[in-house]
Amino acid sequence: MLLFAKQFSANQADAEDIVQEAFTRYWRSDRRGGGNPVSLLFGCVRWAALDLIRRDSRRRKREALSSDYDRTIRDCHLFERTVEKAELAENVQRSLESLSDVQKQVVVLKIWGELTFEQIGEALDISANTASSRYRYALSALRRKLGNENDAN
């Protein structure tokens, strides 16, 4: 299976991750439907590999867009960063760092990772409702902290 996964991946570590994900998917799947377990596992490897390829492709596109945007902003004098924007970015970063680890993880997975609450729940081994409530509480805390800091300035 590792050799099969290597056909889809660029390196050994990704292939190992694909196989591990495939076994996890197989284990979580409904295996009572019959069928050959080996072919089901290879199907799981294939789908895990395709998901990795899609995820990496989306990440590269986001990073390319972000770097293009940053380059455009740096090169264009009309859009120079103002002191206020820099201060706001610093306040947001400081407020995010002040959240609890569990809230910070959910916020990062939701916003940067673009995961659903169900996917976040699976990733953090919590329920989707718990992920949703942590996200809600984190945003509320961020609003309070940013509101207080802006009021002080």
What can you tell me about this protein's structure?
This protein has 153 residues and is mainly α. It folds into two domains: 1-80, no CATH class; 81-153, Winged helix-like DNA-binding domain superfamily/Winged helix DNA-binding domain (Arc Repressor Mutant, subunit A, Orthogonal Bundle). Helix content is 78%, strand content 0%. It contains seven helices and no strands. The chain has helices spanning 2-6, 12-28, 37-75, 83-97, 101-111, 117-124, 128-152. Helix 6 packs across helix 7 (128-152). The longest helix is centred in the middle third of the chain and has 39 residues, at 37-75. The relative contact order is 0.07.
Please write the string of helix (H) and strand (E) elements.
HHHHHHH
Mean pLDDT: 81
Number-wise, the strands total 0
Number of domains: 2
Distance between the termini: 59 Å
Beta-strand content bin? under 5%
Please outline the major beta sheet. Answer: none
Cα radius of gyration in angstroms:
21 Å
Task: Output the number of helix runs.
Answer: 7
What structural class do you assign from the helix and strand content?
mainly alpha
- Report low-confidence residues grouped into runs of 5 or more: none
Instruction: Give the CA-based shape.
Output: flat
Helix content: over 70%
Nutshell version of this structure?
By secondary structure, the chain is mainly α. It is built from seven helices and no strands.
Topology summary:
Blueprint: H1 2-6, H2 12-28, H3 37-75, H4 83-97, H5 101-111, H6 117-124, H7 128-152
